[in-house]
Amino acid sequence: MLYKTCFESPVGELMLASSLDGIVGLWIKGQKYYGLGIAQDMQETPDNPVLAKAKDWLARYFSQMKPAISELPLAPQGSAFRQEVWQMLCAIPYGEVDTYGAISKRMKTYASAQAVGGAVGHNPISIIIPCHRVVGKSGSLTGYAAGIETKKRLLELEGVDMSGLYEPKTGTAL
After folding, report:
1. Cα distance between residue 12 and residue 20, in whole Å
2. Which residue in 19, 92, 95, 137 has its CB near the most CB atoms, within 10 A?
């Protein structure tokens, strides 16, 4: 059984999904891949302890209190490759960015920046697994399922120096 709840945030309504053991999803309303990977109905519940912990984490995150990702039980569903990429995302410090190419070079087995980008783009636990902290090698704010404006707002909230970052004019080259 999966459970869900909503959370109002500065970037819009968030939907959280969990099992009794861990968070399986967090999506920003209207984002690409909303609810992707959830093949079963979810029960709305106000008292699920996993979801309550996630909502508390999000409240602290949006208050710029820098909560640790390790405080939450995460259970994203995906291939071993995607799991490895998502673990690398969790290692990007609050207020910093990394590039698709740099992540690809740290993979245990060879992976192109584009393959890493695909895994980043299919991250089922937005914000908590910080895919918004990944940019193109030249500072391009490319590839965020909830849109570039939301990505910019999250990075600004974290105090990222935006001076070397820019919106791509066309395409999504990594």
Report:
1. 25
2. 92
